[in-house]
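Quick start: what a row looks like.
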Amino acid sequence: MSKGVLLIVSGPSGCGKGTVLQHVLKNEEYSYSVSATTRAPREGEIDGKHYHFMTKAQFEHCIANDKILEYTVYCDNMYGTPREFVEEQLLRGVNVVLEIETEGAFNVKRLMPDALSVFISPPDMETLETRLRGRGTEDNETVEKRLAKAREEMLLADRYDVVIVNKENGAEEAASEILKAVEAKRNSL
């Protein structure tokens, strides 16, 4: 059995990563690595499914005990990747999906150079702003912070192995592009 591919997926908040990855994860050869965070849960989010919600002290304990593969601070909250799950899945031949921001993506790619990094981009900034405001989950100040961060992230897209534009109603097409890229990567290992 061949080892699984570690798929690193990044993109600005509101670009549609979650929707695209729902299509990718319908394939049983893929497993989603649930990130840990110190961010408070949004309405409807479930601990262990959407994130492993932790206090700052719990998160720092995991870092100190090498239980976090990588971590970063994003919009004043800590986010990280639990190490054990990723390593176990890859050894079983399962492709592991990491949905992480750019700094974390570059850290993981440095630690695991065989990983495939994919940047999902919105069609344009206007579409991104409409999506973020349409969620209705954040105040105007937070949306503005996310838009500023998105502009920074978009400048880093060319550092990824693959860049995919998630067009309006294009999540299935974007997912298909990701599946093809992972298959090509797996065949090259």
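That is the whole record. The longest strand covers residues 68-74. Residues 6-188 form a domain with the Rossmann fold fold (CATH 3.40.50.300).
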